[in-house]
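Example complex used in Figure S2.
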Amino acid sequence: MNRKFGIGFAGAVGLALVVGSFLPSTETSAADKGAAISHTPGVPVTRRLSPQQYRSVIRDVFGDTVALGGRFEPELRRDGLLAVGAGYASVTSTGMQQFESMSRAIASQVVDEAHRDLLISCKPKAANAPDDACAHQFLERTGRALYGRPLTKEELRVQVNAANMGAKDLKDFYQGLWLSLASMLSSPDFLFRYETLEKKTEKNGVYDLDAYSKASRLSFFLWNSRPDEDLLKAAANGDLDSSRGIRRQVERMMASSRIEEGLRAFFTDMLGLDEIDAMAKDSVIYPKFDTMIAQDSKEQTLRTIMNIVYKQNGDYRQIFTTPTTFLTRRLGAIYNVPIVNNAANGGPELWREYTFSPDDPRAGIVSQMSFVALHSHPGRSSPTLRGKAIREILLCQKVPAPPGNVDFSLFNDPNAPNKTARERLTAHVANPVCAGCHKLTDPMGLALENFDGLGSYRTTENGVEIDASGGLDRSQFTNAAGLGKAVAESPAATTCVINRMVSYGLGRTPDRNEMPWVKDLEKQFSGEGYSVLKLMERVATDPAFYKASAPKPNVAPATSTN
Amino acid sequence: MSTNKMNRRAVLRGTMGAGFVSVGIPFLDCYLNGNGTALAATGAQLPVVFGTWFQDLGFNPGRWMPKTTGFGYENNVELVPLDPFKKKTILMSGFQYFLDGKPLETHTTGVEIVTTGAIAQQADALATHDSLIADVIGTRSRFRSLEVSLSGGSRSRSKRAASASNPAEGSPVNLYTRIFGPDFKDPNAAEFTPDPVVLARKSVLSYVTEERKKVMGDIGAADRNRLDQYFTSIREIEHQLTLELQKPDPLPQCRVPGAVEETKPSSLVTAASANNKIFAPLLAHAVACGQTRVLNVGVGSQGLRKEGSSQTWHGWTHEEAIDEKLGYQPEVTYFITESTKMLADFLGALDTYQEGAGTVLDRMAVMWMTDHGYARTHTMDNVPVIIFGSAGGRLKTGQHLSLVGDPATRVGLTLQQVFGVQVSEWGQQSNKTSKTITEILA
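Predicted assembly (1004 residues):
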C-alpha cells in the first residue's frame, strides 16, 4: 500500500508538515514527479462537503436506494462561490446533530435486511456476537470509499473495536456495524475534504499533493464526488505521480457521462442557482409561480448551458446569446410558448427543445426565468438587482454596497409618482451619491425590463410603455438580446468563468502569484474556441493544479470554545 | 472568600472592576443546586433563560420613545401593543452603533455590533452574545440553544464564529419534532428505563472521538478552530446522550404540548404571524420542560410583505414617501405595528405559562434588537434596545432609561454578566465597553 503518512485524521489534514511526522514515502517511478511550475502555488484548503457532494458520495458508495433523511446546514458563499465558502465552513452543534442523525439513518439502511446481502460482502459467524474478520473486511472497504483513501491501521482498529463494542452491548453483529459505520459517517474525515502534501517532493517550499489528495481534487473537480475505484487504484499504484498517469485518468473521467454532473455542479455554483430553492414570489401578483416551476427554471438554464458547453462542446459565450432553450409545459406558460405535454398521466413533465425567432428579445440565460426572477423582488422586477447580478456573477466585478445615511426624500415625491422602474431609477441617478453605483448596474438591468418579476414578457408597466434600451461599458443596445450579445462580447465574461473554475477546483481564489497561470489559461481558452470542456481538461491536467505551498505553521494559540 | 457567602452583586462587581478579577466558579453555580434546577438558597427558583428577538428596520422616530424616563413611563404609540408587559420591560433609548471609519454595510453592520460587539464585515465575525451566554447556562440542557425564523429559511443571527452560524428552524412541525418528538424524555414520567441503544451509541461515540483526538497533531490555526468546533459539537451530542440516559429531574410545570399542524412558512406578514403563534407556545413549553435555556427568534423583517403587494418592508422604508399629514410612512408603519403585535403574542405565550408563582417570562430576559435607529436613512444613532423579563429577579424592570450616545454593547455586556459569563469588558474600538448598566441590576 502506498500510504504516505500513518497518522490518520490529522495526517490527512496536510498539516502533518507542521508536525513533521511523515512516514517514509515509497519510491516512485515517474520522472516528472515534483516537476517545477513557473509560479508559487497557494496553500491547500480543507473543505466541508456540500450537500450535493454528500448525496453523491452516499449514492456512489451505497447505491441510490439509501435515503438520507435529514437537512444540511446552510452553505457559505465566499468570493462568489459556495466551493470557496466550503473552505471556511465549520459544523455547529445543531448542524452536527443533523449530520449525526443522518449518519445513523444511512448506516441503519446499509445493515438492514433489505441491503445487507448486497452491501456487506461477508457473513458473521454468529449474528448475535462480534466478528472481527467480517467487521474488518466491511469497514476497510467502506471506509476507503467514504474517506477517499485507505484507513490507517490505527483508524481501522478503532472502527473494528467500535463495531465489536456495539455488537457486544446490543448482542447483534449488525447493530455493532451500524454504530461503527455511523461514526465513520460523522467523522471529520468524511465530512471534510483534507489535502495532504508530500514532503519528499518539496522544492523551494512548493510541494506535490499526495496521491489521494490529487485523486480527490480531480474527482470533485470533474465529477463533484469522491474518487471511484479506478481512481483510488491509480492513486495507490503511483499512476498519479506522473503527468501521463493523470492525463489517462482525466481522459477516462471526461469520457464518462458523469462529467455532465460535474459541469452542472460548477454552473449551479457559479450562477447561484441553488438560491432558486429559497426563491419566493407573491402568489397574488404571480399566480403561475410555485416551487415546481422554480425548479423547472433552474433545470431550463442548466439544460441550455449543457446543450452548448457539453453536447455541442461549443463556445462558452453562446450561453448569453443562444435562442435555443428547453421548456416544460409549466414553463411554456411563462414564456408564452404552448408546450404539448404528452407525458403519462401523473408522470414527470417532459422537456422540449425550443428556439426563439431571431428578433425575439429572449436570447441566452440572462433572459431566462432563473435569472430575471431570481434577481427581482417578490412582487416586481429590479433593474438594479439584475444589473448587479450581471456584474458580480457573470463578469466577476464587485458592485459597492449602498452608502449609509442616504436622503431618499429626493426621489420620494408623492405628487409625481413614478410609473416605471426607469423613472424611479432616474430619480436615484439624479442624486450624485447614488449615481456612482446605479450607473454601474441600472443600464444593464433596464434592458431586462420587458421581463416582469417572474420572467413573463411585458411591454408596459403601470400603463406606460417600457423602454428596454441600455448599455454595458461601451456597448449600447435596445433590448435583452442586445444585452446578451454585449455580455458575450465582454472580455470580462471569459476571464470570469476561468477565475471561477480555478477557484472552484482549488477551493479558494487564485493568489496573486498564480495569476500568470490564470493568464495562460485565458490564452488557451480563446485559442481553443472558448470550450469549457477543454478548459476543464487544461486545468485538470496542469501540474499546477496538484501543487501547493505549505500552510503557515500554527502561530495562534489553540482556542477552546468552552 | 467562601462560595456560600458570595453575593451576586459582589461577583458582578468583581468581574466588572478595573482589573479582571478571576472568580473560581461560574457565577450561577453558587446558586444552583446539584441538578442545576433551583437556587440553593431557596430551593425553589427555576433556572434563568436568555432570549433574543431580532427585528430589523426598527421603529419610526418620534413614535416609540416614551416621553418620560425612569419607572412608570407610558408607552409611545408604536409600543402600545406591549402595554401588558410594561412592568416587565426595560426600555433603553439613545444607543449608538460606532463605525470607527469602517464602511457602513447597511442593515448588516449594526447587527454585527449589537450581537458581537465588533465590525468584522462577516469575514471573521466573532461569536454572538447569545452563544457566549449559552456556553455558560446552556451546557446542561438538551439543546444548547434553539433558533427559529418566523418567515421561513434557515438563517439566524446566532453565530458561534463566522464559519459556524446556528441554523434556524422555519417550520413549527420540525421544531415540534426536534423538541417533543421520539427523543423527548418526559421529566414527569413515572417510569424511566435507560435505552440500551442510546447507551451503546454513547459508548461508541465517546470511544471513537477519544481515539480520534489522540491522533490529532498540531495543525494550522484556521483548521484548528474548525476542528475544535467539530469536537465541541460532538461533545454536545455525547452530552445529549448522557441526558437521555438519566432520569430527568421532575418539572411539575412541564406539560407536553400536542402535535402542531404543518404551516406554509413564507415572507407574508400573515404567515409569519401565524407561525409565531405556533412557535411561541412551543418555545414556552421547551423552556418549562427544561429542554433549552437560550432562544433566538428572527422576524425576518426585511423581506416581509403583504399579500398581493409587490413591495417588501425593506423596500417601503426606502421608497415610500412620508405622508405629509401623518408625518410618517404609512406602509412601513403597518409592518412595524404587525411585528410589534407578533412580539406581544410571543411574550404573551411566555407570560401565560405559569410556573408556581411566576411565569416562564419571569425567569427570562428577552433582548429585543434592531439594525438601525431609522431604517429609512440607515442611521446608527438613537437605537433602542429593549429587555423583557427580569431574569428571575436579577433585573429591575418597568423602567425607561435614556442612554444617549452610549455604545449599545453595554446591554450585551450587562446581560452576559447577569447570565454568568465572566467578562469585564466587551466589544471593539468605540463599541468596546466595560460599563455595566447598573441601573437595571436588581
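Chain A is about 45% helix and 5% strand. Chain A touches chain B through 83 residues (CB under 8 Å).
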